[in-house]
Amino acid sequence: MSERRMISAKPGDTLTGVWVIGFNGEVEPQDTPARRAPVLADAQGALVLLVPEASTERDGAYRLRVETGTRVGEEEALPGHGTRLERGPARLGHTLVLVGDAERRAASRMRDLLPETAPASVAEFIDWLKRGCPSPAPEGARDLGRLLAWYCSEVEAHALWLCIHEEAKRELFHAVAEEHTQELVTASWWLSRVAFTDEDLYLAAAGLKRAGSPHAENMLRAMLEEPPGPKALQRGLEDALKLLVECARPASREPAPVTRAEPHAPRYAVLSASRDSVRKKALIEVHG
Predict the structure, then answer these.
(1) ∠ CA(266), CA(277), CA(243), 5° rounding?
(2) Which candidate among 94, 112, 242, 245 keeps its CA 20 to 30 Å from the CA of 153?
(3) How far is CA 160 from CA 118, 142, 166, in A?
């Protein structure tokens, strides 16, 4: 890094002289939801790295070291296969949530699942999805065509994730009850992408197994942080299959209980190359 300076900021504060110009990696519209770290730059297009110091100040502000490095032209590709976005102000502690085809289709139902404790901005974002994403977009939202990016706080991201999580489970149970194989495969992969826990991943794998997919066991091995041995994995999958059938909801789509948002966001699963690889194999199944 060629230049360094110190700044002080609280979570949510706009960072003077720092801009969001994209996000790390690439996301396909059928591989959502996804979370990605923003790519930051200064006004001249030089990449920026924020390095927090060990301590905070009395008013809750963080001391940050801003390191400025290589300049990237507006027409140049971002490093690490990054995806460019229209430039916007950077905020401390914000993340990028990517939604696509599945979330567009489910927006109306997701709105009914929004926790009471969720920020009003989350309802505004979901309503925007429901209305077909007209202009102007909500603050921090960017329409990328079939893919939509929302630069938001961790609390906002968590509340949106809860809605998607509940609807993904409801879609899964509905597909089992109606014996819709194609919908069951789609819902299973959707739940795997929004999973909070290992139990969610086992439930998603059970959906794949019930649909006759050959990817159930491989998905679990790739996505569990600490995959168990073959016998334990099979026992867990069998238990999840029983739970899946017990929880299957009728075609009337009775409302599912909503998990209330906590004041802070939990740790999310980080997509790895192996997970993305397993998911891409499923696209052959889903889309022929």
Answers:
(1) 55
(2) 112
(3) 8, 16, 10
- The number of domains in the chain is 1
Complete DSSP assignment for 213-274: -TTHHHHHHHHSSS---HHHHHHHHHHHHHHHHHHPPPTT-PPPPPPPPPSS--PPPPP-HH
Residue for token pair 């001249």:
44
pTM: 0.83
- Domain of 205? 164-287
Choose among 81, 87, 75: nearest CA to 48.
Answer: 87
Question: Edge-to-edge, what's the strand order for the sheet holding 3-9?
Answer: 3-9, 62-71, 46-56, 38-41, 14-23, 83-91
Answer whether residue 80 is part of any domain: no
Whole-number Å distance between alpha carbons of 101 and 151? 18
DSSP for 94-113 reads EEEEEE-HHHHHHHHHHHHT
Residue type for 11, please?
P
pLDDT tens digits for range 194-232: 999 999 999 999 999 999 999 999 999 999 988 899 999
